[in-house]
Amino acid sequence: DALCRPAHFERVWGVLNTPSPLHPLVGSFFLKIVSALLAKKAEETAEYIRARPYIIERLVDHLATPAIADVLANICCAGVTNNLQEWLAEEVKLVDRLVEKFNPANHTSLEVLSNVVQLLRDLVFAHRKLMADPENVSVLKPLYAQLLSERTVDVLLGYVLSSSGSYIQLGLQYLCDLLSMPPRGERDPPVSAEEQERHDTDIAPVLRATAHHIESLHKLLMVPSPKQALTTASGNIGAPLGTTRVMVGRLLCALVESNSEEVFHELIRLGTLRLCLDYFFRFPDNNFFQKHVADMVSAIIRPEDGAHPLYRHLFVDCSLLLLVLHGWSKSVEYQ
Fold this sequence. Notes:
This protein is mostly helical. 66% of the residues lie in helices and 2% in strands.
């Protein structure tokens, strides 16, 4: 009750007037106080924030501090009685502000972008966990709908694919999470058919937007790593595949496991799957990429009736069996 007095509220939120970057310890204490206010005095805190839209602007400006990203996540996950989520989505346009951080013209630091990606992941996974309870589905619905909208994903991918290095990797990592179900613990029940159907419906706009950028992803897959071959005491190690191409492989794996005819059409047209198979044998030491390719093949051949749209493409156009036999013969020769 003492913290809710106007003078004390001003002092608490006045922390955001500090020039960026905010000290991590200050950010941590600020997070604890705001979390307590949202838990005990949600209505009063929400009304205070809504009356001062600049608070959200300053929080976004302080995203270099991880604790501030957690503050924003807690605000977004507050109760719905005050329509705070609708206000954040429609008036503040929080999702657009966060997506703009990916714009290369803004020269966002990797530290800030990493925190933005974590914040977006938290919002997506928080909503998906709440969907298990039908009464809570609307809690994050406005923000969640914007995060998965075709327009938002299209803009984000445009920014990501015009960047380079770690910026691309962070963006692709977030997109992979957007297409995935939330992580489940050992004691959690398996995904039900209803949950899977709801998830497929949710990510349909994401797949439509991604289909427009498959060609850019294919070209990115063809860009060699800037790192050169390395000579060691045990011999010559060729130039590596590179982290960016591994992340593209992870995204392609998620796309192959989806159910998007647009995506499959583009993959067949560009021959992306064949390129991935070539890399599978060309970079035998990259276990991460090999797992992604193995998962792609498994997803395609899993249906017993060969019903996957990429089944014929895999065996006929990509000559999977010939590639496997050739790889096996080379392995025998090496041994």
